[in-house]
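1st attempt posting a full record on here, be nice pls
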Amino acid sequence: MGVINTYFIASDDAAAASVVETGPDAANGPVLDAVDPTVQAGTLQELLTGEPYDNITGERSWARLVSEPDHDSAWVVSLPGTFTDTLAGASDERLAEIVGPWSETEEFWGAGDPEYLLPMLRDWRALARTARERGEALYCWNSL
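the predicted structure (as tokens):
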């Protein structure tokens, strides 16, 4: 059984947490199925910024749970503004430069395909840019 990671934009934590039961609906705004919001997003941030992974994921704002902790099979986490800003500001050239090393991190189990991951990174960047333009935040709905 795998985990579904769907990224979306919300105005605040309460609005984001409200989708925990059903998941985000594309009718209410853009959504993107992507990678894990903790480790894989953390390694992406590390490659984009050069900041050590442990510093990034050690921040209290990193993948902070915003939904009720006792939900059985789904939860919602927030991504910090620093991640949104870094991703939104990444150029096509920078994404192309880091996608290879990112695809080789252990979290991709040796099966990361840069040809697949680069378009996903561009879509994720577009979502981050939309969040920034709207003055909203990135969230990830996770479901078993």
